[in-house]
UniProtKB/TrEMBL annotation:
GO terms for molecular function: oxidoreductase activity. This is Multimeric flavodoxin WrbA. Gene3D superfamilies: 3.40.50.360. Pfam families: FMN_red. InterPro entries: Flavoprotein-like_sf (IPR029039), FMN_Rdtase-like_dom (IPR005025). Residues 16-157 form the NADPH-dependent FMN reductase-like domain.
Amino acid sequence: MANLKAFALICTLTPSPAESSSDLMANRILGRLEEQGVETSSARVVDHNVAPGVEVDMGNGDEWPELRRRILEADILLLAAPIWVGHMSSLGQRVFERLDADLSSTDDEGRPIMYNKVALTAVVGNEDGAHHVTAEMHQGLNDIGFTVPAQGGVYWVGEAMQTVDFKDLDQIPDPVASTISSMTANAVHLAQSLKSAPYPAP
């Protein structure tokens, strides 16, 4: 079995080290990947100076190039984001705007640079919108070149207009836990497959 790496970009609006539901969900998923032999790491976007823009490097202290390097080194990208006002967080949208620069980036064989990488998504919130946000994330990741495995997204949303967050739960609900098990197993299988049989060059 080839060695695999996973990197989680966590789009919470809460800086470290404060508790974050998105961070907790991401770490649950990374933990399951680690159980399957995957090397993992993560970063909260809010802890970095990620400038607005659609270039690989916006200059003036922009820290996106370092986060991008970690994405490029990984076989699996996990994108975790909360729901705010029915949409993914502004930092989630910023990640997609920065990834837009790589629509035209290619590898040594002329393939889009994010080809042969697997993407997973996680969404949390205490309001409606999980399917909407997941759909946006999956479409955007696919456009950029990532491959989303079967059942490649997990979400938890609390009762609408209430204050319970994922981090407030005493235990993970069984449907969430079983989805995490399935998505991580599928991600590892797909990442191994793409390592042994990459997409063809154009």
